[in-house]
Amino acid sequence: MSQVRIRRSFRVVTATVTTATSTCTTLRLEDMAGAVMQLPTITTNAATINVWGNITDTGTFAQLYDSAGSVAAITLAPSTSNPTMYALPDSSYAVPYLKLVAANTNATAVASIVMKS
Questions:
Q1: How many other C-beta atoms can be found within 10 angstroms of the C-beta atom of residue 31?
Q2: Residues of the chain with pLDDT under 70
Q3: How many helices (H) and strands (E) does the chain have?
Q4: What total number of domains does the chain contain?
Q5: Does a structural domain hold residue 40?
Q6: Which one, of 43, 26, 27, lies nearest residue 114 by Cα?
Q7: Cβ-contact 65, 55 below 8 angstroms
Q8: CA 74, 20, 39 angle in degrees (round to 5)?
Q9: Phi-psi domain of 40 (left: phi exceeds 0; alpha: psi -120 through 50; beta: other)
Q10: Residue 4 domain-assigned?
Q11: pLDDT score, position 39
């Protein structure tokens, strides 16, 4: 009897995170089942990263909310002296295209987004 093996594919994308959706990297999650954001460094002004979504990779992105009406967001740990990783909110997987947008003024980061299919 052969053993069943579950194989997962991973893709890593470098993403720019700023306060302006127009300058944030568009992330394609169409075929992805999960993702985490790794932040090696970020300015001290950043405390929250909001998730914005769209049905196409162009056009106007909208702030994403969960079914309870709460903003889909990632609250960052207060210390950024060590690299940190954060899982994307569950509601992120309801749309094919996302942008991670810094919620705090003058916050910028370059993040690695690890996506799993």
A1: 10
A2: 1, 41-45, 79-80
A3: 0, 9
A4: 1
A5: yes
A6: 27
A7: no
A8: 40
A9: alpha
A10: no
A11: 87
- What residue type is assigned to position 61 of the chain? F
Q: Compute the radius of gyration of the chain from its Cα atoms.
A: 15
- Residue recorded with tokens 């049905």: 55
Q: Which amino acid is at 110?
A: V
Which residues neighbour 90 within 8 Å (Cβ) at sequence distance 6 or greater? 66
Q: Which tens digit of pLDDT belongs to each residue from 49-68?
A: 999 999 999 889 999 999 99
**SS3 (DSSP) at 92:** helix
Q: What is the pTM of this model?
A: 0.87
Q: Please, are residues 108 and 25 in contact by the beta-carbon 8 Å criterion?
A: no
- Whether 5 is in a domain gets the answer no
**Within a domain: 91:** yes
Q: Which residues of 11-27 are buried (b: 16+ CB within 10 A; e: fewer)?
A: eeeebebbbebeebbbb
- What residue numbers bound the domain in which 103 lies? 10-116
Alpha-carbon distance of 54 to 77, in angstroms, equals 27
